[in-house]
C-alpha cells in the first residue's frame, strides 16, 4: 500500500492485520511494520472503543496525514492494538 498523494510505499499487504476498522474518514486498516512515516505527539483521544493514547501518523515524503498509531490503552481487551497503526483506506 502506498500514499495516495506521492505514491511512497507505506505498508506491505502481508502487514495488514484487519480491514474492518473505522477511521476519521471511513473505512480503515489495522496494520503493523509501517515504513516512510512520521509520528506526531501523543494525545488522548476518544475513539469508538473508548479513550486511547494515540499519535497521528503522516507520510514522511509529502506529510499527508494517513491515520494514527496506538500508544496506550486502559483496556486489557484493546492491548493487541498497541504499537500498531490505523491507516485510512482513502489515504492509501
Automatic annotation (TrEMBL):
Q: Which UniProt keywords apply?
A: Metal-binding, Zinc
InterPro entries reported for this sequence: Yippee, Yippee/Mis18/Cereblon, Yippee_fam
Descriptive protein name: Protein yippee-like
Give the source lineage, highest ranks first: Eukaryota, Fungi, Fungi incertae sedis, Mucoromycota, Mucoromycotina
The segment(s) forming the Yippee domain are 1-92
Q: PROSITE patterns per the record?
A: YIPPEE
Which Pfam families would you find in this protein's record?
Yippee-Mis18 (PF03226)
* Molecular functions (GO terms): metal ion binding
Similarity field:
Belongs to the yippee family.
The UniProt record lists the keyword Zinc? yes
From which source organism is this entry?
Rhizopus microsporus
